[in-house]
Structures are given as C-alpha cells and as structure tokens.
TrEMBL record, chain A:
Pfam families: Bac_DnaA (PF00308), Bac_DnaA_C (PF08299), DnaA_N (PF11638). This is Chromosomal replication initiator protein DnaA. PROSITE patterns: DNAA. Its main location: cytoplasm. Residues 1-84 are annotated as: Domain I, interacts with DnaA modulators. ATP binds at residues 157, 159-161. Residues 330-447 are annotated as: Domain IV, binds dsDNA. Oligomerizes as a right-handed, spiral filament on DNA at oriC.
Automatic annotation (TrEMBL), chain B:
The lineage of its organism: Bacteria, Candidatus Nomuraibacteriota. Its main location: cytoplasm. Belongs to the beta sliding clamp family. One of its GO terms (molecular function) is DNA binding. It is found in: Cytoplasm. This is Beta sliding clamp. Forms a ring-shaped head-to-tail homodimer around DNA. Residues 243-363 form the DNA polymerase III beta sliding clamp C-terminal domain. Confers DNA tethering and processivity to DNA polymerases and other proteins. Acts as a clamp, forming a ring around DNA (a reaction catalyzed by the clamp-loading complex) which diffuses in an ATP-independent manner freely and bidirectionally along dsDNA. Initially characterized for its ability to contact the catalytic subunit of DNA polymerase III (Pol III), a complex, multichain enzyme responsible for most of the replicative synthesis in bacteria; Pol III exhibits 3'-5' exonuclease proofreading activity. Residues 127-241 form the DNA polymerase III beta sliding clamp central domain. It holds the Pfam family DNA_pol3_beta_3. It comes from Candidatus Nomurabacteria bacterium GW2011_GWB1_35_20. Residues 1-119 form the DNA polymerase III beta sliding clamp N-terminal domain.
Amino acid sequence: MDTKQLWKNCLVEIEGGISKANFSTWFKNTHILKEETGIVYVGVPNEFVRDWLKNKYHKLITKTIADAYENMRAVEYIITKTEASKQEISPMNEIYINKELPLKDLYINPDDNLNPRYRFDSFIVGPFNELAYAASQAIIENPGTKYNPFFVYGGTGLGKTHLIQAIGNAIKDKHPNKKVHYLTLEKFATDFINSLQNNKANSFKEKYRKYDLLIIDDIQFIGKMEKIQEELFHTFNTFYENNKQIIFSSDKHPNYIPELADRLKSRFAAGMIVDVSEPEYESRLAILKVKLRELSIDLEQEIIEYVAETIQGNIRELEGSLNIIVCQYRLKNKPLSVSEVKNLIKNNIRPKKNVAIKDVVKIVSDYYSLEESLVYEKTRRKEIVKARQVVMYLLREDFNVSYPLIGQKLGGKDHTTVIHSYLKIKADLKNNPQLLQELEQIRIMFK
Amino acid sequence: MKLECEIEKIKNGILQVEKITGKNLTLPVLSSILFIASGKSLKLRATNLSLGVEIEIPAKIEKEGIIAISGTTLAGVFSNIFQNENIKLESEDGNLLIKTKKNRIKLKGQTHDDFPTIPTVDGKTFEIESKKLVDGIKSVYYSSSPSDIKPEISSVYIYSNEDNLVFVSTDSFRLAEKKIKMKKVEELPGILIPFKNVSEILRIFGEIQDNIRVCFNKNQISFSSEGVYLTSRVIDGVFPDYRQIIPKEFGVEAVVLKQDLLNALRISNIFSDKFNQITLSIKPKEKVFELSSQNNDVGENKTYLDAAIKGKDILLGFNYKYFLDCFQSINTDSISIRLNQSSKPIVISGSSDNSFTYLIMPMNR
C-alpha cells in the first residue's frame, strides 16, 4: 500500500473540512509512518500536535482514513523527527492564489523604457508572424543597415509590442553600447508639445537623436498631427542618414493611416513593412502551452485544445481566457473539467454577431465611398458589383447568413448568384493582396 | 463564566503566561490566553506549541465557563491596574467584562474551540527543589547556542550521574557544566530542553519556593508545582559527548581572586579588538599572571594579577566575553584556572568547588 499517496489523499479531504489556520498548524509535517495489521501509525512532529489530533481531530482522521483505506482498524499517533516529513505535504496544497504577484511596472527600465519581460524566449513564432520574426532577427544582427525603417503592422493584441520590445532587448544584449529607446507615439507627441511650450524645441531634437535605436509604438495615431509628422520626418531622416535603426508599429498599413503625409508614407515603404496576422490554431496552442509553462501549471491537453479552438483572433484575449482558467484552477486546487472551462470562458468567446444586413451594406459602401442604395440596385457597374460581392462574402463568411436570405435582401437576387459572388471573392483573396487588405480594414470597422 | 479573585494573583498569572502565547503563528487563537473557570479555581492557559503553561489561581466561581482573550491586550490591561482588591470577571456574549472598584473593561473574546489542550506527560517522574533546578539551569544556559541551525546545542542538556543531576550547555566555543547534588535521583538518560523554552522556565519557576515535580519521556518534559504546570517539547537529538574534551590533567594551574580577575578583564575589555581577544600570559618562575590586550585605535594595556601559580610558561588568547559570562555561576571568592597548552581549552572553576566547570576554547590569531 502506498501510505504516502493515502495520506496525501486524506490531507486533501481533511483540508476541506477544517479551517486553513488549523490545517497548517496541526497537519503540517504529519505523515503516515507505517501500517501494521490494520493499525495506521501517523507520525506527528511533537506532543502538542499529538495531543490535539487525539483530542480534537481523531474522529475526522479516523473517518477519512477509513474512507480511503478499508482495512483500517485503528489510528495511532507517534512523534517523529520533523526533518523526515518536511516534504510530505505536496506543493499542491499550497494556495497559489496567495502568492505574491510580481510588480510588473517596476520592471520597466527607466533608461530605455523597455520592459525586460518581452523577450524572444517567450515569443511564439508561427506562420502568422514568421516574416516579421525573420526580419527582426536580421535587424538584430545588423541594426540600421538591412531593413531601415522596420514597420510592423497588425491588429490589436497580436504581439506587435512584444516583438518590437524584444528587438530592443535583444539589441541591448548583443550590442551593450547601443542606446535603445522605446516610446509610444503619444509620448513622442506630448514631449514635442511640452518642448514647444517651453521653447526648447532644440533640446527635443537632441533628446531623441542621441539614441542608436528608436522604437515608436502605435504610430497610427499620427494621422492628424501635422506638426508631429514633420518632426518625426526630421528625426527619421537623421536616423536614416546615420544608419541608425528605427522601428515603428501600427495597427494599419501606412497607406491606410489617414492623412499621413506622402513623404512619410514613402519613407516607411523604403524599409521593410511586415504584417502580423491572427494566429492560427496550432500557434494558439503553442502560445497557450508557453504561457502555462511560465505559470508552471499543467492543464489537460483537452482543455488547452478547447481554449485554442474557441478563442480565435487576438492573443490578448487568449491570455485573458487562460488567466481566468488558471485563477479558478488555483482557487479550487484541483483539475478543471472541460465543461467547467466552457462555462468559465463563455463570456470571452466573441459571439458571432447578428448584424443587420443593412449595417453591413452601409459599412462596405462607406468604405468604397458609394451610395448605400446603389448596392441594392440592379446595376452592373464594376465598382458597385465589387462592393456588392464583398457584402455577400462578408455576410456569408463572418455572419453565417444563408445564401437565399442574402440574395433576397440584396435586391431579390437568386441564391446561386450569391454563391457565385462568395466563391469569386474567396478565390480573388488568394491572389489579390489588395483585396485582402480592404477586407481586413472593413472587418476592423465591424469591431 | 462569572468569578471573583484577587487582582494581584491574576495579574501575576497573566503576566507570566502572556510571554508564552504564540506569536506569528498560523493559528490566531494561540496568541490568546485561555481562561478556564471550574471548581474552585481559574486556570490560565497559554501555549506556542513548543511550550505550554497553565497557572491555577484560587477564585470564587459563580458560574463556570471558558473564554479566550488576546494575551497582549490582557497584559496591557493588567500591567496597568494597581489596586489591591478583588476583581470580578464575567463573560458576556463572547466578551470578557472586567470589573474592579475603579475600572470597567470589556475585552473582545476569541472562539476558544480551536485552543489546543496542553499535553500531559506520562513517563518517569522525580521531585527537585525549585531552587536547585533554577540554579542548575541558570548556571549553564547562557552558554547554549542561540542559533537554530543545530538544535541539539541550542538547548540545555540535563542528565543524571550517580547522585548528581548534571546541566550542560555549549555553543562549541565554550561549555558550562553544573552538577547539582540530589538525595535521590531518578535515572535520567539525557534530555535536551530548547534554549528558548529554558528562559521561560527560569522566569516562571524563579519565584517559586516549593518542590517541583518533573515528569519526562523522550518527547516531552513537564514541570509542575503548586498551581503551575509547564510542559516543553524536548529536542530529539544527541548532545555532543563533551566529557572527552574536558582535560583530565593540566600543565599549568593558577588561582586568582575573582574580584581581581573581574577588574582586570574589565580593563582589558577597553583595549580589546573587534574579536574581543585578550591575551593571557603565565610565567610561574617569575610569578607573572598577566592579561594584555591591544587595539590600534585605542591603545594597549597590561594588567598583572596576584596569583598562586604552578607549572610551565604559557601564552594564549581568548575571547574575554566568554570569560565574563561564567562569573555569574561561580560563588567562591577565588577562581581556579587550569590549562595545558596554548591550543587546548582553558578550564575554569571555583576553587574548592567542583560542581561547576567552564571551558573556553582559545583564540590564537
């Protein structure tokens, strides 16, 4: 008989029945010494514990052991040295939830603003970001020469910030004398405005130009800031001329950043523009596994697969769902079943929206700058046909509307027409990156 | 619970047991004192799961009951009550009401269900006069190691030898041994009482005059006398076989007056370095017994003492603090210092009193 396992099971039972303070005071350092002819000998650290277990918990202990081990006839307590039994309580019984949480903000290095947590060790590379990853590795090898500027774009929560900060950290490790600086566009703008207010425009220029690597996050907001575009343009030129690396991230391709000056657009295009798309199933699985390893928690494969399956799209949501599960797991201190997990994350699953067809038509026609009513009309003008087909495709692909219904709502078309449109767009997407881009833009507007 | 008793008695009791209440323990109720009113007495109980104590106070019980009250609060309250009359205690809705002529105090109680019992020890018993027990412990306990790393030496070792009860403690730099003569000694194979508990035993039994009943087994020891019951855990370990390091024969022997030596050590202290080292030089032919110390920042000093010396020349260094410690245990006027060579321990005892032996390891740098 495995007395260790038996006692472990009993402790779990007992822990549920009494308060935490009592449990840790009286059951810490206890273990089953041996079992002889039905008598179970429980080793305790001292007389105080023996006395109290005998007086107060004898019934509970006897019952618990009897439930788990039917041959038991009696329980005896023996005082033993404590050292031998220290490992007996498995780490499972510690309540992780009380663990101190690390103070994340304190980790940010004030010199370069980089968060050392963002490293390539924890960066999952998959088909959705391999190009961006490969380019960043080349940049780390030769900052400033190969891909300058490096422009990363992609939807929210897909790891852009992680990537660009990891580049910063890697360059810092590899080239310790290089000065790296990370900031968001918003910070850049505030600094600039402050310097204007204090008449210190020159020191502003100096401040940023002294760095060897500048990383600017969330550049998409630059659209309406004309003066800042100009300043960025000059800063950029200085960097570029001195062969210093500069890295941008944005949630849109530079061509779609509204009101972005052409001179900046062309400069962004001069370097490397890569996109980070949404992770596919296998990558999501890999991400979940890495996160679990960081938290040093084991979840059942089935659960991980379920989460990867259901939480599509952005990695941040994936992490959020995982956090909920992990928190619950620590709280309950036992493995969760799939149905429990389903229940837990049901709010995180983005519901397939029931969008009114009218809204889809409106957004698409807005995007292509068409009159909404034109889409419903029977016209074969090329631009209208395209918009109409996109509407059909989106309704079918994203919102699961039936073909006949789509046809009926879009001016009484036959369902075969709708099928044709759907398949046409689907085929076009494969060889027309422009169209893919457009669809992504439109989809962002739905969110 | 409802009762009446003398302020002085309950005050003493509370201040005694409060020191033993558990601090920083996972079980909050252990920081309280348990009041048990039954029969004709009120029992105050406290434990930190290493040491447990119960003090019984005669009281007029009107209604029996049990209540647990925070020890620090009680100590705070009672150390500031200075009246010499009776006090009335009454429990009401889990709180304790304290009434004296001039005070009306209400203390919040804690649930007492979780308050543990104090183990009673079954095993061999013997009786000892409280004075002897306290003397034995007091003579040696300062030598035990304060660190918990080696529990067997951070304790006082008690065993019986012929008609003596022997108390020993050491921190591996010095060692103290005290033999107490007993009329009748129960065979005592050797018990290690934790150092931390020993000082509480001294505090509680230091004021008691009666005989103390000692009961022990291999895990636990208890001391009881009129109205006081104290039980301590015993360390499961083996005390080093110290007898083999006490030299049997000596090459040098010196006898000096205790007061002279004390004064000399105090002067040397001023000049000792940061290792507290002072140097002892004995030259029997020239009748020199010299203590010297020097400190680069302060200066240096040499003190000559009158001494009866025999043997050969010797020069060795030691930590004067260890030397000063043993003066509290030596009751004779003159001290005998015996040595062999500069790398062997110094043995100190009261001259013509072999009940106490003290060893200091030399420090030669």
